[in-house]
Structures are given as C-alpha cells and as structure tokens.
Design goal:
globular; 11 strands; 7-stranded mixed sheet; mainly beta
Length: 196
C-alpha cells in the first residue's frame, strides 16, 4: 500500500509586507446545522483541499447569523497528535449578548445541534479572499461549554458558549477557507443561507 498523504512540496515565502496576518474575528458569524448541508453539492477546490468553493444547503434548510461585539467571537484550530493518525480540534468561543427567554431557548436548541461555523476574520488589504474560515466542515462542532454568570462584569448574565470538535470525531484538516469566486460573492452566498 502506498502512503497517499501529501508531503511538503513547496516553499513558504510569505510576503510579510503585502499579506501580513491580521488578528481578530469580525462580530458576525454563521452557524449552519451540520445535517442540513448538502455535501454532495458542496465543493472543495480540486487543486487545494483547504478551500471550500461552494457551501450548499439541502432544500428548505437555512444557516443562521450570530452577532457578537468587540471581538467576542474567537476560533482556533489545534493539532491533536495520534499514535497512527493526526487530527485537528476546532474550537469556537462566542457570546450570546442577550439575557431573554428567547436567547435561552436558542441556546438550548444549539445544545442539541451539531453545526458548522463560518467566521469572517480581519485581513490585510488585498487579502480579503482569505476572509472566511470554516470550522467543523467534515465532522461538525457541538456545544462543549455553556455558562451564564450574572455577576460577570462583561456579559451581565448573557451566555458564554464554546463549540468544539468531539474528541471521538476530530477533523481531518485544520480550518478550511470558504471562497466562492471573490469576497463579495462569498459574502452574498452566506447571506443567502439565512431565513427569508
């Protein structure tokens, strides 16, 4: 059997002037029920398997937008070394900045839903085609932490949530990017996932 895993095959000569990394995620992100994505029609670039080129929902299904504030949305991808196979753990931290019965109901429904998360990150000028990071595309994320602390000075009782890969179904890749032609088209495609 031939090992078909990709090996290092190119230089990484980063242009630190034109494409300097920029920290932080923007205040809106998209949460998409994992089982509602049409994986047969969604596509990954044939030349770069880290790039999703189409994210298609099953008929009648939607994604949902979550608005944060002042860098309250965060994500990370962490390598999990295995004895035989290495995998990746994706984690998304965010806050639901509303303390209402409707917010509680929304959080409760999220606890019962495996999801994919698309987060728009800040990028340097000229690098906006790399703006959208996708967490949980292959196996999905689930709520691993949900807390509400009324004495917390920052949230005033609103929920603090963590979505993460299940230890039994980690991701085969780091976070992928989503790009459908260009930034504007990708943004429009994400907005089109939302309920009418």
């Amino acid at each position: 059997m031939v090992n078909s895993c990709k090996k290092l095959s190119a230089n990484m000569l980063a242009d630190y002037c034109a494409k300097v990394p920029v920290g932080g995620a923007k205040d809106e992100m998209y949460i998409i029920p994992f089982d509602d994505v049409d994986k047969a029609l969604s596509t990954i670039s044939p030349t770069n398997d880290m790039l999703i080129t189409a994210l298609i929902m099953l008929t009648g299904k939607n994604g949902y937008k979550v608005l944060g504030r002042n860098y309250s949305n965060e994500f990370q991808s962490e390598l999990v070394k295995g004895t035989l196979i290495d995998m990746w753990k994706h984690t998304v931290n965010f806050r639901v900045l509303e303390d209402t019965v409707e917010a509680k109901q929304w959080v409760d429904s999220l606890v019962n839903t495996r999801v994919i998360v698309v987060i728009e990150k800040y990028t340097a000028a000229g690098n906006s085609n790399n703006a959208f990071e996708v967490c949980g595309f292959d196996c999905g994320l689930e709520v691993s932490v949900a807390t509400s602390n009324n004495s917390d000075g920052d949230t005033k009782g609103a929920f603090m949530l963590t979505l993460s890969s299940n230890e039994k179904s980690l991701e085969p890749k780091s976070t992928r990017n989503y790009l459908s032609t260009n930034y504007a088209t990708t943004k429009a495609a994400l907005e089109a996932l939302l309920p009418a």
